Amino acid sequence: MTQPPEITPEEQIALDKALYEALEPLAAALRARASGLPGERMWDADPVEVSLSVLATWKAVDVEVKRLTAIAARTAGSYGANYEQLGAAWGITRQGARKKWPEAVDRPAPAEAGDGVGGRA
Predict the structure, then answer these.
(1) 13 or 27, which is more confident?
(2) How many whole angstroms from its chain centre is CA 107?
(3) Which domain holds residue 56?
(4) Is residue 116 part of a domain?
(5) Using an 8 Å Cβ cutoff, are 85 and 98 in contact?
(6) Has residue 114 been placed in a domain?
(7) What is the pLDDT of residue 121?
(8) How many helices (H) and strands (E) does the chain have?
(9) What is the pLDDT of residue 110?
(10) For 98, how many CA atoms within 13 A lie in the half-sphere containing its CB?
(11) Three-state secondary-structure class, residue 94
(12) How confident is the model at residue 102 (pLDDT cuts 50, 70, 90)?
């Protein structure tokens, strides 16, 4: 199984920074709804509550990433990628990719009985 390329430490730092910057407005909005505090005062709330709102925001992001990942897998499948290729890109087996994205790759229809396959006419 081919492993996906690793990101460099510099790329990891840049990714973390970009994710936190993207997360902050959603975390502030969720925290504001939960606490009644304006978004810009989110960090003035109880640290446990703030931390939990950040965790809840990461959950929302996780759900969205899974949705977008499935779309990317289906898109690759629609262009002809097979489960072995999808698995290699994700760092999992072909079977793992099939289980993760069961609708990503169009499977050929099973041969009809009596269609001449296997010596039957």
Answers:
(1) 13
(2) 23
(3) 10-103
(4) no
(5) no
(6) no
(7) 41
(8) 4, 0
(9) 62
(10) 8
(11) helix
(12) very high
14: enclosing H helix or E strand: helix 9-35
Q: pTM for the full model?
A: 0.71
Q: How many domains are contained in the chain? A: 1
Which token pair is 39?
A: 């978004």
The structure tokens listed for 23 are: 């997360």
Whether 63 shows a pLDDT value over 80: the answer reads: yes
- Reference 19, options 52, 70, 65, 72; nearest CA is 65
Contact 89, 4 (CB under 8 A): yes
* Measured distance CA(87)–CA(1) in Å, rounded: 8
**pLDDT tens profile 44-56:** 778 888 888 889 8
Tell me if 31 sits within 8 A of 37, measured CB to CB.
Answer: yes
The reply to whether 108 falls in a domain is no
Would you state the structure tokens that stand for residue 50, as one six-digit string?
Answer: 């703030």
Encoding tokens for residue 120?
Answer: 């039957």
CB atoms within 10 A of CB 90: 18
**Domain-embedded: residue 17:** yes
Torsion over CA: 75, 81, 84, 86 (sign): negative
Question: Minimal CA–CA distance to 97: which of 111, 121, 76, 113?
Answer: 76
